[in-house]
Write a structure and sequence with these properties.
Layout (H helix, E strand, L loop, with lengths): L1 H16 L19 H7 L14 E12 L14 H4 L6 H11 L5 E2 L7 E2 L1 H8 E5 L1 H8 L9 E5 L5 E13 L4 E13 L2 H5 L8 E2 L3 E2 H10 L1 E2 L9 E2 H6 L6 E5 L8 H4 L4 H22 L3
């Protein structure tokens, strides 16, 4: 019974102790989560660089666009924690990590589409991320020539809880030098309920593409952010590791094709089951290519 009590205490405290670096070397609680310059230099922790791939070594390739639904249990590490402040600055959701990287300038470019044709600025993203509405009492103050009281301004901000999922663009290719089918993540896009729809409390609001990020440009930021590891809290993963290793479940909603990369729901309309089966068919055709390479 005593052992069971100890296990329960560990289970309860495990979430709060997770990812608090330097916890065993701290002399005061203020030092928890802070590393000295010597510790940082000793870690020398950087994302594993991609190897060079010669175009002549690519025998076959296909570009796919997938949707990661955050309602699925396996994808929950991309959503949580929603309440970042309670658990400390080291644990953040993927959305907050990306947004922090954009605002700090570590992620230099964001784009309007998955082809990375047009860049977007923070000023363009502003109305989507935050909205201010003046209440009726505020308008009465303004009409009376009085200064607007801040309490009569309702502010709506988009946060991690408003993210419904992520769209990702990836590149499947068969590397003849390695003799295997490989995957390279090219872009990622949060799908959110924007500030306007959130302010209207519309239950039927649909998520929209907020921005696209060219994934290689964000690897350093994602590598510095840790993801909860349910198997071992002493060995957290990084977002870069999780995404590159495809430790998520996703549904293909588009592939490169002769019809201008049209989406599955454009030629399989009004039938969710058939759209899912079409997505599975595309996925199986990719897997089967590698299998067929070794059939004689």
């Amino acid at each position: 019974m005593k052992n069971l009590f100890v296990l329960l205490i560990v289970a309860v405290l495990g979430g709060n102790l997770y990812a608090q670096t330097n916890i065993l070397n701290a002399d005061t609680p203020d030092e928890i989560g802070k590393k000295t310059d010597a510790q940082i230099a000793n870690d020398n922790d950087e994302p594993l660089p991609y190897g060079y791939v010669d175009e002549r070594d690519i025998l076959w390739a296909k570009t796919t666009w997938e949707y990661i639904d955050l309602d699925e249990r396996v994808n929950l590490p991309l959503l949580y924690p929603i309440d970042t402040g309670r658990l400390g600055s080291e644990r953040m959701s993927l959305f907050n990590v990306l947004l922090k990287g954009i605002r700090s300038g570590e992620i230099k470019n964001v784009y309007a589409d998955s082809y990375f044709n047009r860049k977007r600025t923070l000023e363009e993203l502003g109305p989507t991320l935050s909205r201010r509405d003046t209440l009726q009492a505020g308008y009465e103050q303004l009409n009376a020539g009085e200064e607007l009281d801040p309490q009569f301004v309702r502010r709506t901000d988009v946060d991690g809880a408003d993210v419904e999922g992520y769209r990702v663009r990836g590149y499947w290719y068969f590397d003849t030098r390695q003799g295997e089918l490989r995957y390279r993540l090219l872009g990622i896009c949060p799908m959110v309920i924007d500030a306007y729809a959130k302010s209207q409390n519309n239950p039927n609001a649909q998520p929209v593409e907020l921005f696209w990020i060219f994934y290689p440009e964000a690897r350093n930021v994602l590598h510095d952010a840790q993801v909860f590891n349910q198997s071992n809290t002493a060995q957290p993963l990084t977002f870069d590791h999780l995404l590159n290793a495809r430790r998520f479940d996703a549904v293909i909603y588009k592939e490169d094709n002769v019809q201008g990369d049209r989406e599955v729901d454009e030629y399989v309309a009004d039938n969710a089951l058939m759209q899912l089966l079409e997505s599975q068919r595309i996925k199986e055709s990719i897997r089967n290519f590698e299998s067929d390479m070794w059939n004689y």
